[in-house]
Write a structure and sequence with these properties.
Strand content: 5-15%
Shape: elongated
Helix content: 55-70%
Number of strands: 3
Largest sheet: 3 strands, antiparallel
Order of helices and strands: EEEHHHHHHHHHHHH
Number of domains: 2
Number of helices: 12
Radius of gyration: 27 Å
Amino acid sequence: MQMSTARSRAPSGSELQVTIKTSRPSGPTAIAVPVTPTADMVDERYRSAALTFLGDTLLIFRRQLKLSLRNPAWVIIGLIQPILYLAFFGPLLARIATGGVMGVSASNPYSFFVPGLLIQLGLFGAAFVGFTIIADWRAGVIERFRVTPVSRMALLAGRVLRDVLTLTVQAIVLVLAGLAFGLRAPLAGVLIGLGFVAVVAVSLAAVSYAVGLVLKSEDALAPLLNMIMVPLMLLSGIMLPMTLGPQWLRDIARATPFGYIINAMRDVFAGRYFNAVVVEGIGVSVGLAVVCLWLAGRAFVTENA
């Protein structure tokens, strides 16, 4: 008598249907036998969704990091602009501070300027990463990922994690350059400031990837980002304190989130950690990150369905 057994996998705790066919003169007969699966019969991907997402995220992160290391030109170019601002605009701000400009310390003007440059680095460094996903979509990389079991959210999280690491390294180099120009700030304040930069990078990188994936066109993405980023930079008080502007301009600036973050960074760079300004900055940055990740996550799941 010949016997063949067919098994199907199922999550642990459910039953498997095993069909045994036996040969008889009148033809094969199917016998259903209930079997309880053991742990080794369960696919590893069904044991923990969190571990699966983490593994997929690290996989995408390593891939994106290797691509960045193969062509580090964009990392260097992204760092040059803030350093040029530091070198060419910083001395002018120092001269202005000696005239008693409200909000700028005459003895340590770079504690005002460097936090603004760090947020500028986060604004432009993270907001323009959407161009890379358009290039991947055009090259068919996104399409190939769609037919794999990789988590759709991991496609976003791995890329964002790479961008956070890149911008954090750039921010550290910018702070070191600021120290060479005369910046004086406590170590705790600098570390908290780097944390703000990382959260801003998460927010803007996630939105940039989502918008890039939806638009799928560099010609549409570039003017859209410039139209949004430049006013945000000017209204956030990165270069000069908003106290110099008229009341109507200050009212508009209060509606932008990055002004609160920059003010909080300037306070921690000055050694003031426990006040309402810092609490506002933390709340705004974390809230912005949550909203941006939620919107970007929905876009990735929808576009990669």
